[in-house]
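Quick look at the format.
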Amino acid sequence: MSTTFNPFGLKPVYHPSGLDRAVPFVGTNTYNPGTTYTAPYSLSSGQSFFQYTPVALTASGQLTIAAQAAASTTVGRVYGSFDGVEYTNSDGRRSVAKYASKTTLDASTQIIFWIFQDPQLVYEIQCNGSVTTAAIGTQYNFDTTAGSLVTSGTAIGVGGAGFSTTALLATAVAAGAQGQVRVVGLGREVAYPAGSNNSWGDTYTIVQVQIANNMFAAASVSI
């Protein structure tokens, strides 16, 4: 049973086609808006991109962190899930990392992001609460609790490792409303405590989702 809340962001797990598009450098696309931007990203002070952070694009094409909730079918749309970044640091050394802070990126050049952004990808994410099979086909927004927001994450030691701790709200949006993701099944992620099975109705259920408010597909409201 998933009895411990230990969110891990918006983690890609498979593609409905059966092609292996949930694997880094196979399922990811590079994102670099061109040489016109000195900073091809938009972060607030203290923010970072962590592996599996839900991301979006600004009106000017800069990569940013996705909104907690879908404001409408055209506002707050999700681009995909962050998987890493390449950049040239202030010493002129080319670096590759699974996360990067605003401070690091501000001091870097030649930035290229790696993003999972195929609209059909299926992801896993942990809910901050219990959900049942009634969740299938319904839509949800990201969690609003400190520590499991879209901006939340943890850097691990040194070497560029950092992981999102984004979770999903356990309450679906209303029928006819727009959510950020749609539940399509039960997560197969190993549950917590370690070695236990994830099941519907667990205290902190892990679910499989697709992005419902996707920038590359027509938004579809909750049923």
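Next, a different chain entirely:
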Amino acid sequence: MGFRMGLSPQVPNVLERHVESVVDELLAPEGLRPEDVAGWAVHPGGPRILDVVAEQLGLEDGALAESQAVLREHGNCSSATVLLVLDRLRRERDLGQGDPVIFMSFGPGLTLYAALLRVR
């Protein structure tokens, strides 16, 4: 039967305060900055969420193109939607071995999960 889920309009405001520090914690030990990341697999919870992530991290236009395309085509299918983004990123970006990719998903109560992946 599925489940009903509501997305608070406060989510972008909370992300705005925390997304940069989460990403910095992932990248700093590797000596990386957001501009060094070859791909961004960000859960497309909504257009404003993607806008906030791009703004707060200073991402270039197109950095979240795969997330935006998945949102357009599938909508927000909960946290697992980021797996569709990761697959699309893998197929559409020219990623080289060892390139860093950030995988980011959001869950209930606005839990932010993020991982630094390397292309194999």
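The domain at 11-118 is CATH 3.40.47.10 (Peroxisomal Thiolase; Chain A, domain 1).

See the schema section for token definitions.
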